[in-house]
Structure formats: C-alpha cells, structure tokens
Amino acid sequence: MIDWDVAVTTGTRLVRPGPQVDIADARQAVSQLRELSVTAQGHVTEFTGMSPLEPAGPAVVVDRPGWIRANVEGFRAVLEPILDRLGSSRLGNATGPVSTAVGSRVTGAQLGAVLSYLAGRVLGQYELFLPPDPDGTAPTGRLTLVAPNIVQVERELEVDPRDFRLWVCLHEETHRTQFTSNTWLREYVQGQMQEMLLASDMDAGAFLERLRAAGDAVVDVMRGGNANLIEAFQSPAQSEILDRITAVMTLAEGHGDYVMDAVGPSVVPSVAEIRRRFQRRREGANQVDRIIRQLLGIDLKMKQYEEGAAFVRTVVEQVGMAEFNRVWESPSTLPTMDEIRDPQSWISRVVRSRPLPEGDGQVSAGE
C-alpha cells in the first residue's frame, strides 16, 4: 500500500538544501548539539524529578535527507504490520497487482512530498518507532536533532547560537525523559495508532468518498476555512481514538514547552528574547505556508504547544511538580482533551481523589 523506497526518493529529491555553512562551522554545530543534548539531560531530570530508566547518550544529529530517511523507517516500523493486516480487502478486492503497485507508488510519493516539506521545519524529535535491531530486539527511542534547521532558525532570529541550541535541546530532551521514564507510554501511543488504523472502514467506496472530502478540505482552506486533511480522512471511530492520541501528544508537547522555558532562565540567559522572537516566527508564515500548515494539521500542533503548556503550568502552580507527575503513572491518569482545557477537572479527578492511607480518617466502632 505504500512504496517506502519511493517515499525516501521523493522526499530527498524535493527537500530544499539547508543554509550555507562552511565545513568548520558545520562540524562545530554538530559537536555542540551533541554536547548540549547531554547537558540538557541533567537539567531536565533535575527540574522535573523524573528518572529515565534507559541509558541516554548524545542526540543523533542529522541533515534534512537524514531526517526523511529516519521518519520513513519509523513509519514503516509502525504502519507496515497494520497495513499488511488490512490488505486488499479494505481497498477493494477487485484491484489487481498492476493497480496496487501504481497506488503504492503514488502513496509513497505523497508521503515523500509531505516529509520534504516538514524536513525543512523540524528542529528535532524523539523517534518512538524504530526498525528492530538485527537480532530482532525492539530498540528504545532515539533523540534526533536536525542541524541545518537549527542553524537556519537561529540565524533568522538573530539570537545567540549556543543559547538557542540549548533551548531546543531542553524541549527535545524533555520528550526523551517522558518516554524513557515511563516505559508504558511508548506502547500506549503505538497501540492507539494501530487501533486507529484498524478502525478504518476504507473499502473502495469509502476511499473515494474520503478523497472527495479531502478535495473539499483543500477548497475550504483556500477560502479561509478551518478544515484539514487529517479530519477529512477520519471515520467516526477513528475520530474518538484520535482524540486520545491528541490528548497525550498535547500533554507531551506542552510539557516540553513548559520545561524549556522554566529551566531556561537559569541556563539560557537570553531565553525570554528567544521565546519572543520564536513565537513571532511561528505566527508570521506567508499565505502559502499557512495553507500547507493547516492542511497538514501543523497549526493544530502549534495549538497543542499552547494548550498543553497552559495545562502543565496551571497544575504545577496549584499542586506542585510531584503531583503533576501523576499524569505519567498510567493511561488512566492521562488527561483528556477536556481536562487539558480545564486543568481543575484533572486535579479533582486524579490528585484530589487520592485515597487516604489505610487507617486515616476512619473512626473505630467504639468511638
């Protein structure tokens, strides 16, 4: 259903080259990013009180084509087993090998085109889904930083390079800490993604209907509407699952933004100026870029930063970091999207409802 080689070839062919950097500066940037990713680990662990259960070395630093290849590998690791299970029955049994091959190449080219756009914008990520090691062992995640994008943004913002690089590392290291301190979280996210795919009702007729909906979404955005392609391709069952995925990713992204800014003043002297300029850059895209961002759901991700950070900030201010960290205990303590928008409801459900220790508050029969 997806030609992964075509995705890589298309993405690496379409991606724009990074900024012009001489060899010495490029090597210095890579070396410093690796060093600062390790520095950030200590700051994040100390501030959050979370203890990673897996060893964490320096981040992997890549260029734009390297980011594309890594993400295709990740998509393949998590999607291929599910797509194989869906098989031809979901896309119509009448399709023959020729049409299937053509369709897989088209899908691969579409994925590659999307990744080529994102590869010029992503500063870093914690890769949850990696191909198994040669011995079949499922690997832990991998922290990746995209050096040319970091250099390009720090130049555009005209900020101190070291401060900006550490600031970015604080955010991405927070993600690594989230998933390595709570090993159930990776399986939970992967399970939700697989469940969403399996909830698809994509027979041939439904697929054509979704394509029409996608076309309507493009027209709506061009006219200034709020549609996006993610919503256009959802079934009702998938929408419910996506709400759960959105909630946990909003929490994760908001937590990363909260930590990077809260830790920042003590270790990143220019953090306030970096945040101000970075936020202005997020909001200042041209019209074409805004349309693409909305269609791909990137504007939704930006909203996740804001809503998630507001949730974390409110909860920490009211009950402290240790009680906030109860969000990571199990799927049942994760906030819903409604709770993220109303932090007090999460506090009431999870923190205030904590059972009293045995014997506390109980009156004996003789009293």
TrEMBL record:
GO MF annotation terms: hydrolase activity
Pfam families hit by this protein: Zincin_2
Keywords for this protein: Hydrolase
Origin superkingdom: Bacteria
Matching Gene3D superfamilies: Zincin-like metallopeptidase, N-terminal domain
InterPro entries found in the cross-reference section: CHP03883_F420-assoc, Zinicin_2, Zinicin_2_N
Protein name: Putative hydrolase/coenzyme F420 biosynthesis associated uncharacterized protein
